[in-house]
Each structure stands twice: as structure tokens, then as C-alpha cells.
Amino acid sequence: MEIRISPLTRIISLSGFLASGFLFVILSCALYHNYYPLFGTLIFLLAPIPNSLFGKRGIDSSDFMSDATTNASDFGHFLTGMFVTSGIVLPMVFYHCQLIGSVSCVMSMAGGLIIYLSIIIFSWFFSSSWESEEDNLFG
Q1: Could you give the CA distance from residue 26 to residue 32 in angstroms, rounded to a whole number?
Q2: What is the three-state SS of 51-63?
Q3: How many of the other CB atoms lie within 10 Å of CB of 68?
Q4: How far apart are the C-alpha atoms of 136 and 131, rounded to whole Å?
Q5: Transmembrane ranges (predicted)?
Q6: pLDDT 10s digits, 89-133
């Protein structure tokens, strides 16, 4: 028995998840009157773009070690990894330079990761469902 979740329920739950990520980042800025953590959010928002531009559709786990990947796909994965790593490390660099506090650093990193994960989960939920379902959004 397969449980089917409607696309509207998926969108509402993912928007709540995304809003909690933005809440963490905005609180890390507003509580300490320092808006440097917003740069990390910008990096996390840019992170999925290389995979969507250079990535292949329909890669399954058996293709991980095969030679079927192209150089463009590898370059997209590299850029995405670079952006995600930079988004995690940038608040640490700001903390090390004493531009933000430790709580602001942790909240900024957690919020950025939640934002990135919600973008990835959204693309994962809707990558195949737009083709397989009809135009019934509320069904």
C-alpha cells in the first residue's frame, strides 16, 4: 500500500521548512544587530544552480562509480560542493574575525543548511511528479 501525498501538502510543508531556515538567519542578524550572516544565505541560495544547469536527469545510485558521467556534470557537482562548503565556512570565518558572535554563527549555519535542504527536497519531490501526474494540483 503506497501512501500518496498531494503536491499541495508538499508545497505547504516545504514552505514551512524554508520559512524556519529564513527565521534562523534573520534572527541571527537581527538579535545581534549585525547583518553579515546574510552573505551565507546568498551563497546557500546560489548552491543548487550549478547542479540544475550542468547535472543529468535520471541518475540513479548505480551510476555513481561508472564512467557515464560527463565533465559538465562533474563540474556542476564541484561548484555545488564549493558553494555549500563556502556557505558553512563563511559564518565561521566571520566568527573568527570577531564580526559575529558564536550564537549568531551557529544560527546562521543552521538556517543556511535548512534553506539549502529545502531547495534540494523541493527539487527531489517535484522532479518526476510533474511528468507523471496530470494537471491536478489539488488532487
Answers
A1: 10
A2: HHHHCCCCCCHHH
A3: 11
A4: 12
A5: 12-35, 75-94, 106-126
A6: 999 999 999 999 999 999 999 999 999 899 888 888 877 655 555
